[in-house]
Amino acid sequence: MTETTATETTTTDPIKVDIWSDVQCPWCYIGKRKFEAGVALFDGTVEVEYHSFELAPDTPVDFVGNAVDYMSQRKGMPVDQVQKMLENVTAVAASVGLEYDYDSVHQTNTVISHELLHYAKAHGRQLDMVERLLKAYFIDGRHVGRIEDLADLAAEIGLDRADVVRSLTAHEHLAAVKADVAQAGAYGIQGVPFFVIDGRYGISGAQDATAFTQALDQVSAERLADGSTDSVSA
Question: Any idea what the Cα angle at residue 131 is, between residues 205 and 110, rounded to 5°?
Fold first, then answer.
C-alpha cells in the first residue's frame, strides 16, 4: 500500500477504519466478524466506512450454475478441488458463527449492490446494509444483483423501497462505486477484505481479532504520543 496522509485528528476523535470489501467475498464476511471482535476488545471509539471492490466485474447478473460451477470455470480448477475449498471456507465461517450455504448461493455481478451500499451510506444505514447483503448472499440464498431483489433487502432494514428502486435504476451512486475501486487501485489493494486503520496502516485479509485490536491500540498510543496523525505506509 502506498503512503496516505490523513487529516489532523485529536486523541479523542474516533479511529476511522476504511474497509474495502465485496458482497460475494466469503473472507470479507469472515473478516467482518473478526474485525468486530477486535473492536470489542479495544478500549476506544471506532468509526467504520465501507468501500466498493469488485472481485469479478465480468460476472453476469444471472450466472447459470452453482458456486462450484462458477469457481471451477473461473479458476480452471477441478470440481472436487473447488468443493474441498468451499468446505474449508464454510468451516472457517462456522468458527465465527456464520452458516454459509453454498448450495443456495446466486452467483451474480455485484456492482448494483455496491451502488445500494452507497445509497445506504447517504441515508446513515451503510453498516446495516453491509450486514444484510452479506447474510442475504452467503446464508439466505437471496439474489443481490437485481434491483427489485435489492430493494426488498433495503426495505427490510427500513430504507424507502421505492426510492431505492429509483436510485438504482438511475445509477445515482455508480460514480461513487467507481471512485472506490479507483482508490483501491491507487492504494495497491489487489484483494479484499482490506482494512485501512486511521489512514496509517493497512491490514489485508481476515486476520485474527487480536491483529485489529493491536493496530487500534497502536494508533491510539501514537495519538497520545504526538497528538496528530502522520503519514505512514503499510
Answer: 75
